Amino acid sequence: MLFLLSEIFGKLDSFWGGLGLALFIFAMLRLIQIRRIKTNEEYAEKWSIASNDERNIYISKEARSKAFNFSMMIQAITLIIFTSLNMTEYIKILSYLFVGQLCIYFALYFVLRKIA
Fold it and tell me: How far apart are CA 29 and CA 54, in angstroms?
């Protein structure tokens, strides 16, 4: 839909068209994978083992954790740079994003701590 609005009708800029096309391609690849899982028993078994393997689950969680840590550090550094350059609109947006992510993190931390 975003691609159509952007490229064909000219209602949105090219960023949204590219995003729409990327989301469409991702959805198509996911549908192909689901179809392959349903039709190919051997592939379904390999996929099930790979997705439920404790080592892979640990690696996935560790990668997400590191990605969050790095993104928070990059946002903090960018926030300092924008502050020194007096870019107030960017500072406001980035601050909301930064604080929002921290709030979500702490909320999930306390919820998951009570569950565990």
Answer: 25
Q: Which residues contact 82 (CB under 8 A, 6 or more apart)?
A: 90, 91, 94
In the block, tokens 């099930």 appear at 48
Exposed/middle/buried for residue 31 (C-beta within 10 Å: 0-12, 13-18, 19+): exposed
* 80-101 tens-digit pLDDT: 999 999 988 888 988 999 999 9
CB 9 within 8 A of CB 24: no
> Given the structure tokens 């996911």, which residue do they identify?
30
CB proximity list for 79: less than 8 A, separation 6 or greater: 91, 94, 95, 98
Q: Which residue has the tokens 């960017």?
A: 90
Whole-number pLDDT of residue 104: 92
Q: Give pLDDT tens digits for 10-24.
A: 666 666 667 777 888
